[in-house]
């Protein structure tokens, strides 16, 4: 390993670390807003169809936001640095080998590809391996959903 080795997905040549992190934050925030809009639209249609009105929308945003936040927090936990193999005469503790997934290799989903065409992101051009992990973006989406739920409650019920 050379001394100038960098993990995949870092800042491009000549780009400052602050600007790179800002681009990642904007990408995650736009993703969070897009997920919130999709969940909000589905909650609105379902709530008004069932007669729940705006309270049902606010409640659905709160529940889904809390669930997404919990799921994202669970996904963000670090991977264990060992594995246990059970054998006939006991067990053996081993370190994961080279067959594990490559760190930084991320595939882009169709939803993420659609979100990447939204105006602020279409000009930024962050490759998939430079973006935050899907779990980190879901954490942001959960926070945005909870904020939308609080904002909706403040506007309609206070």
From TrEMBL:
It holds the Pfam family DUF7555. InterPro entries: DUF7555. The chain crosses the membrane at residues 28-48, 54-74, 138-157. Keywords: Membrane, Transmembrane, Transmembrane helix. This is Uncharacterized protein. The lineage of its organism: Archaea, Methanobacteriati, Methanobacteriota, Stenosarchaea group, Halobacteria.
């Amino acid at each position: 390993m050379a001394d100038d080795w960098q993990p995949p997905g870092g800042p491009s040549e000549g780009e400052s670390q602050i600007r790179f992190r800002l681009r990642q934050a904007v990408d995650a925030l736009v993703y969070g807003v897009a997920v919130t809009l999709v969940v909000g639209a589905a909650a609105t249609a379902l709530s008004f169809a069932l007669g729940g009105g705006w309270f049902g929308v606010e409640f659905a945003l709160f529940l889904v936001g809390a669930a997404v936040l919990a799921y994202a927090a669970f996904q963000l936990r670090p991977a264990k640095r060992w594995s246990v193999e059970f054998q006939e005469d006991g067990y053996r503790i081993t370190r994961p080998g080279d067959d594990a997934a490559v760190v930084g290799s991320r595939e882009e989903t169709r939803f993420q590809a659609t979100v990447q065409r939204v105006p602020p992101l279409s000009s930024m051009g962050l490759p998939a391996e430079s973006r935050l992990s899907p779990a980190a973006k879901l954490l942001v989406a959960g926070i945005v959903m909870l904020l939308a739920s609080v904002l909706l409650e403040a506007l309609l019920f206070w």
